[in-house]
Structure formats: C-alpha cells, structure tokens
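tool=predict chain=A
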Amino acid sequence: MAARHRFNAAAPADVLIRLLDEAAGEAGLLMCEGRDLPDAVTDAALRHPVERIRRALARNLHVDPARLAPLASDPSGLVRAYLAGGTRLQPRWVRPLPDDILVTFLTAQEGGEDGRVTEKDIVGELWSSRQVPPSFPRDMAGHDHPALRLYAAFQWQSLTAAQRNALLDDPDPVVRMAARESSWVLDPEAVEAELPSIGSRNTWFVLGTCALSPAVVEQCFANDEVHPLARNRHTPADALARLARHPDAEIRRLVATRPDLGPEAAELRQDPDENVRMRARLQPSIRTWAEFQEVQKVVDHGPDCTCPITQPATEPSPDWFATCAVSEEPVLRRIAASRPGLSAELVETLAQDEDEEVRIRLACHHPLAPPHLLLDVFVTRPAHRPHLLTLPAFPRTGRTHLIGHPDPEVRALAAADPTLPEPPLEDPDDAVRRAAAANPTLTPETLETLLTDPRTAEGAAANPALPVPRMHALLDHCLNGAATPTPAARR
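tool=predict ok
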C-alpha cells in the first residue's frame, strides 16, 4: 500500500521522502518517475545513494527539467543515459531539455564513472528522444566549444547561409572538415556524384531533401520516382510544374500547398480530386516554408490525431495565425487553433467554431481553451483523454452530470468530482470505485473501511483527505512490517 501514496496529492514531503527507502520496494521508483515532487523530495532523490532512484527521477516528466541538471553529470552513466533518453510515457507535449543539459551531454569526455556506457551511447539516446529542440543547431553554430560547432555542422540544412560560411572557415580543423563533408547536400553536382554510392535505403531521403541536378530530376521522372521530388523544397520550378499535372492525385496533393508553386496553383483549384482542390485553395495563404510546415501538420491528419506537439525551428508570424483564425477555410482555422500563442479573443471565437476539429485542436493545444471545451472533448474523443488530463486547465469540478455515463472512464472522471454528493463506491467498474474512494468528500471513518477493502484500498490511500498521521502509520506497516494501527488503537 505504500506505493499508493505516490498518487496522493496531499502527501507531504516527509511522507514522500520515506518512500525513497529501499524497503518501500517499487514505491520510490514509481513516485520519482511518475508524479510532480516537492523541492525537498527532488533534492533527496538527486543525491540518493541508490542509483535506481536517480535513474527513475531522470525520466520524470513532471519535475522542471532545469532541476534535473545534476543528473547530466551523474557518476552513473546509466543515470545520464536515462535523462538523455527521456520519459517512457511519450507525452504529446514534447518538452525539450534546457540548453545547459544538452551542452553537458554534447561536450562530455566520458560516459560516467561506472564505465557501463560511453558518451556516444548517451548522445545516441539523446538524438532519439525528441528532447533536442529543432532550433538548437542554429543556436550552437557560433558556440565557443568546438564540439557544439561540430554538431551544428552535421545539421547543415538547419543553418543560415552565414552560419554555413563561418563553419567552412572555422578555426578548428575538425569542424572545417565536417562542414565540407556536410555541404554536399546543397550542391546539385555533388549530390549527383554521391547517389550511386548511397544505397537504396538512403536514396529516398536524399531525393526528398537535397539539392538535385537536372540529370537527377530527369532520372526520377524516368523511373517514376517523383514522390520525394514533390516534398523536396529544392525541386526546380519546371519540375514542380510537371508534378502539378502528374496523373497520380497523391502527387498533386503533395505539391498543391507548396509556397513556391507557380501558375499551376490556379489549375489545381479546378482539379477533379476534391482533396487536391481543398489544398490548392489554401495555397494563396502560404508564402513561407514555415507556413507550409504548419499546414502539413493539419491537412494529413484527422480529429483523433495524437501526433507529438513540438516547437518548430522557425514559426510563422503571429499575424499569419490571426489571419488563419478568421478564414473561411476550416483547415486554416484548425491551424490557428493549434498555436498555443493565439490571442484570448481569438481563442474565445474558435471555442465556438462550427468545425469540430477546430474545437478539438484548440482544446489540445491552447492553454486558454475553456475548461468546458476540454471536458466536452474528453467525453466525445477518447483518443485525447490521456493528454487532456495532463492540462492545468482541465476542470476538477462540474463533472457530476456525467456520473451515469455508459463509458466507465467518463464515470470515473465524474466519481472524483469533490462536489459529488455520494461517490459511487459500489459501481461495477474497478476504476470508477477507485476514483470514488479517492474523492476528498469522504469521511475518515469511511476511508478506514475502504482501506480494508482490496477493491477500494488503492483509491482510499490516494485520498487527499487521508490524515497525515494515518499515511505515516500505513508506511510504518509497509516499511517495518508492523501491524497497521486500527482507528480504535490510534484513539
């Protein structure tokens, strides 16, 4: 039962610190990884002698990542690797690590005192974790440390022209060499020369991202391998015009929203394919690649999309999003609803939009989305429930009208509402009973009864109304093997 206290929002720091005791078993690990922690508990976990505790803390999604900075240079390489690898939960909001932690990882000379992993292993974990913001390469291109300039040199297309030129003339020979080796991706002749040695596995990526010579473009058309050309922002105008008239509607869809599309855009607005026509109608509103990327995040996804929410390397102007918010095109309003920085006035308008996907995106993306909208989306769109429950604005009351809902997940939400007169402790669903047992309106006497019932003990232990002395008594029982004091004994 000790593990259940990790879910009790009212458990004070001294109770939580006791859960770090090895005798608590998995409780300390689950707590360190799975919930927000008071500063005192975070401090205790950061300096805890048991590596497993520090490893669990390194995966914590709820603690401010700046507080976890000491773990980036932890004596244990596994602790460092866990921090670099990020949480196992894969939440929709992708939280980047602070620059100082990233710099520590990328400039490390070793992988920890224990020697179980190398610094390269740790950096490998970092690259796959999505914790490096897309803007980081540009931010590091002029850093004093050559290792960070070296990292920037390998992200060649993320850099500005001035940064590329500076790296090609870098004072460090290793950085200069890396810059020269990376620069081929924007040299059409060099790309053409490299293609035969790249191999089929990487050819698709090269054709979709690198600058291409006329000969390579013609070969793509000859081989009917034009799909990557439709996505490649370096595709020349004459090839783009041919793609806009391609017999495959999927190819026409891909090019219909490109900002560099010429007169062909007008033709595509009359295309026989409805999806192509819709995308072509959006094209006049798209003038930059940053705007194009925002459109792509929406046009290929439906109302139940749970793709990660990340900060782009470059973002369109606030005015562009504001214009999208009042557009007659639902897709553009969906794009506006997906921007967390949209003004409160426009949020109020979009919260009442006739398009359901606009309302769903607003609920999932914007911190000012009204609580009633978050609740509505929770009830109607199960795919978004885990994400919505993590949002600070999600309503904690006003849910009692859902207590008879046929979906037990919705009833469980209602059962936790502290304004509910009678929590449904006898509901046939386990999750609903646990939520009801955690309702803070229950009396201490009722909680004592629930603690003895395996069906409700977990919820009762998580109840914020549980007296702190009782929490300690339960811990005494779990950690020391002592008999759990009864209410009469405590009196």
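Residues 10 and 464 are 5 Å apart (CA to CA). Confidence is low (pLDDT under 50) at residues 1-6, 482-491.
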